[in-house]
Known about the structure:
The structure holds 2 protein chains of 2 kinds. By secondary structure, chain A is an alpha+beta fold.
Amino acid sequence: MGKIKILTDEVASQIAAGEVIERPGSVVKELVENAIDAGASEIIVRISEAGKKLIEVSDNGNGIPFEELELAVARHATSKLQRASDLFKIQTLGFRGEALASIASVSHFSLLSKQNEEELGGKIENTDGKEFHVSHYGGPDGTSVIVRNLFYNVPARLKFLKSDITEKQKISSLITKLALAYPNIRFHLYNERQLILQSSGNGDRREILTQIYGIEIARQMLEVKFEDHPYHINGFISPIAITRSNRREITFFVNGRWIQDVALNSALLKAYHTLIMVGRYPISVLFIDFPADFVDVNVHPTKAEVRFSKPDLVFSMVQRAARRALLAYSPVPEISQSFWKSDSKVTSDIETQWSPATMLTNTDDQPIFSRSSQGVIDHDNKEDDFEKPIHLPLLRHIGQIGATYIIAEGPDGLYLIDQHAAHERILFEKMMAQISDVVPSQPLLSPEIVQLPLHQAVLLQEKLEILDKLGFEVSEFGPNTFQVRAIPALLIGINPQDAIQVVVEDFEDDEKPLGGMVETIIAARICKRAAVKGGQVLSKEEQRTLLENLEQCDAPRTCPHGRPTMIHLSVDLLERQFGRKGSL
Amino acid sequence: MKASVSQQELAHGLSTVSRAVSPRSTLPVLANVLIATDEGRIRLSATNLELGISCWITATVEEEGSITIPARTISDLVSTLPNDRVEMLLNDRTQTLNVRCGTNSTDIKGIDAQEYPPMPLPEKSGGVELNVADLKEMIQQVAFAASTDEARPVLQGVLTQIEGTTITMAATDGFRISVRSSTVTNPSDKAISVIIPARAMNELARIAANGDATVSMSVPAGRGQVVFNLKDAELVSQLIEGNFPDYNVIIPRSYKTHTVVSTPSFQKACRQAEIIARDGNNIIRMHIQPRMEGPGIVEISAQSEETGNSEVQLDANIDGDGLLIAFNVRYLREVLDVVKTPSVALETNANNTPATIKPIGEDEFTHVIMPMHLG
């Protein structure tokens, strides 16, 4: 027997499914995209147990003729493409002909479909994972796909799924994005029979934005309209006053396809460069429509990435479109004033962005990329630091220089320690350790009503118990709306809306809720009053105690604000510098 | 412009208007004081576009004119001048003001008065006359409860309502509310309800000298402003747009426990507890313990992991059940600081419902604080 064998169809299907169907969200994506390609005007999605138990996608589209049902679920069978060259003028979302076959190979699958002109529809089922059974069935026009027990035969994949909440969030975020891209289609999303999302299909994108981000933000979003035939960019971006702490709300659609592209992100961020704080990101939904032969969609199995034939042109257009909308609507005079005055370099940057000569040569993109790669290197260094033993070795105190830095010797060389940063770190860890589990809360005289974007509202609903433990008193108060009756005592002075927002963002980032906020407040308190300042002469005893306490710290290398507390000159480095060792 | 004024009056005038100067504005002229001749007097004005203060000082005017001068420069200069006549002479061509007093002569470069934001025309009629001493006390008892949170402008203001012969002021930051009412001598023909920034109210209390018997308050129609006219000064503030929370719903109508304590001892006890509580979350516990015979006891305690514990006992007249309730001590202390009567009543229902503080013998002042939960 030879060692090399052709894989059975079943195994091959499952391997292929691995590429396309990563998680319940991928099933929903493939099925909904099929529905869109079928010309549906209404799409209903039902999920149960985050899609692991049930995903049902029904549409009122063209349907599949009875005699082609078996073909529909076969591998590499598609109605959307015939020749390889068609790939470059593809108008439909799907084209690979893999989705249904892949889904069917990892689930209990049934598909019901009826074409308008057919009297009786058809049904194809695969309940044992091997064979398809076709039968007649009477039902409404359109197609319904029901996927039960996803990944029942691939337990490994089940293990890699995130929590139900995260998977559900991915699905609801996917549907909202598709609803935005196809405002003329009515979308409904039901979770455990409860309607959690719907769009009216009246073509008004701002209405869908309202569902996602709440009325306040939707109202303020700036409209982007950019046309340079045959290229179109339109959509919405947030004004500079509205930012998020992560890139998650930056969304791009290329020819109706939701894609993730680092370069497009950075083009958009460049439009916001210097207008918003470092580490804050805008909210955006941009639709880029280019001629089909301009975009290669056949790059990624789930089509989450595309390739442009002229990337530079695309990036410069995105950036110009966004910047133009920002500058046109920017309502805050103080900011723009200081913006023009204080930083002449920035001004020239903008001027060059407007001049067509640099648009194509793309010279001013260069610094950004080199800067960001610099950032990556810094990051690596930091990680190196973390790999070193966390606690400091015993240090022998030597003295103080410049009334700011303390010199000490360790077994591995010389340490220069910033006394202010070090003291901050010591006090910070001491105070963090003192925070007790009992959280006092300050109730409000009259409850505050807080409205949240849909996906955050869903998240918050599930975490209401945790909020109680944090010192909040929050209850549901209508759709996407919450009633806040108390906030943690530590947050007095922050308004309830902001406090809730901070917590939800922590949930989204899977961080310890309010952890960051509490740390910031404590770090600010320490910095303001307790820590010794640079320029303060310390007695020998004080310096020694500082070193001893720093040795006890869990993260002695940085102050609570993230600046380094010390510089380490290793013996090795000293020897090299003095030419005792190395290649000199 | 050519005029002379008394150094004392000029110094006082400058200090009156200086709080409305906005020293760090992108409009340089807002860092200046407008100095102008006005019907035989000198008018000093400053504004940060939200709050404007003008005051008039007696002067000998020889030549009319106006100029704006950096507020800091002129204030610092005038405060060091001898108590004598100050001669001011404007060089129109260079927009430089020569200030001469005693042996000192200083030329200060100014900005053309034309660039100064136009000051609103004084509203002489239709104002409500308010007693200055009353008004100052009202502001003192209410304005501190306003919020400093920029995100909720309505709470940064003092709701001021005049209806018939009653004037009521209220301010809240969401955790406590202060309400004070008083009577006006000449009733207004139509009801007024406006939200005035707490900052403007505090400035008004500062500039209203007890020498002035009355202040006239008017809300010119359609301008979104309130104008306070004093004898020699005027304060104009932008109003805050929005709906003020309905405080009548918040103020408890009844109580289960009525605790009367001496104001100074309660105030002192809070100050002592705050020394410990400020390192925690400003939390103090009040244990209200009625006794079968004689006065009851209120025990105020604070503890902080870092600093230690504190405990104070107060004698109290308690009517009702005992209660253990927690407060933010800062809120308690701030209201006790403005209570004028020798004893004060604390009215409580439960440890999670609002508590009311009322001075004994002064029905017009009510303060409500939301207690804290200890988790």
